[in-house]
Sequence to fold (385 residues):
Amino acid sequence: MTERSLDGIRVLDLSRLLPGPFLTMVLADMGADVIKIEAPKVGDYLRQIPPAKGGMSGRYLAVNRDKRSLVLDLKTELGRNALLRMVESADVVIESFRPGVMDRLGLGYAALKARNDKIILCSISGYGQSGPYVERAGHDLNYIALAGVLAMGGERDGKPVMPGAQIADLAGGALWGATAVLGALVGRERSGGRHLDISMTEGALALLAAELGNLDCGVATPTRAKESLNGGLACYSVYRTQDDKYLSVGALEPKFWMAFNTAIGRKCDMAEVIAPPEKQEAIRAEIAGILASKTRDEWSEVLAKFDCCTEPVLEIDELQSHPLHASRNVFFTVPCEGGEVLQVRTPVGQASAKRLAPTLGQHSEEVLREFGFSDDELGALLAQA
Fold:
């Protein structure tokens, strides 16, 4: 395996469930040594969520490859002291507890920085480390609701529709967190370590930057299914085909719109792409009628001959066989008990992994020895696992 950009960077991952583990998998994909520090007996709750393979949750297996698991009881002085000792030779700590928990454990940023002036602590939370919601519980759906993202998707004048992926967890928390960590790693030689406060709500809200840019430009408040990119234009929409599958049409520019209409045999003019709302509905109905005359794959074959920004809407079980994903090695497998586990390559990673997601405490002894713990110390720590 070729050298990766984060080779030599050591990450202590205290997080659970989805946002933090996805973030640290991205770092692992770039070569970081990620040590997953878990509580005794249960560990990361994501392990327990069905369906499972080889005794571990499919979701857990999907976001924890290339990590090592160490069990430490951070509620005990022994466990806390062990973590602080490890911080001395680590680069990054990731945590996703409620704000204030790390301080109450005696493991807040000040305590970590006292051991390692260059340590980077990344705290992922729903609503941030300060403000009136610091003690408030929430999940992805709540975060995108408060961020305005949920309100932008759905049928016109109907209820918002839940997205098919966890936007706040993954984009709002994990990816902004990874970006902040990488920036802090670059800057720490000049300014030392940092405490990164990543709010998943704010991270999701930032994705609306382009729409929010319209608020001071004399336009009405953006809303679902009425804006250019969420259903307001016939040239940028999703259409049902004869076989009850769907096509995505993204022919925003006049040249693509003209090519699309040529492909489906419809007469049009370039001005349709900016026609008023009532005209858009008429155009949409006409396009819908035409596209309902063939199956999705029949239209895909026809449209592939034209440069018109139109692609089939793939269902999840169709992704692996699609020629684009196959040619770019997006999917790969890792051996596990009972067969293999499907993995998705991140854009910053490779189509391979050194190890499967770890079992609870699988690497405890190995990791503790690497950090220089004596046999007696190791025995006491392992006894807590």
Remarks:
- The chain has 16 helices and 13 strands.
- The first helix runs from residue 19 to 29.
- The domain at 10-206+330-384 is CATH 3.40.50.10540 (Rossmann fold).
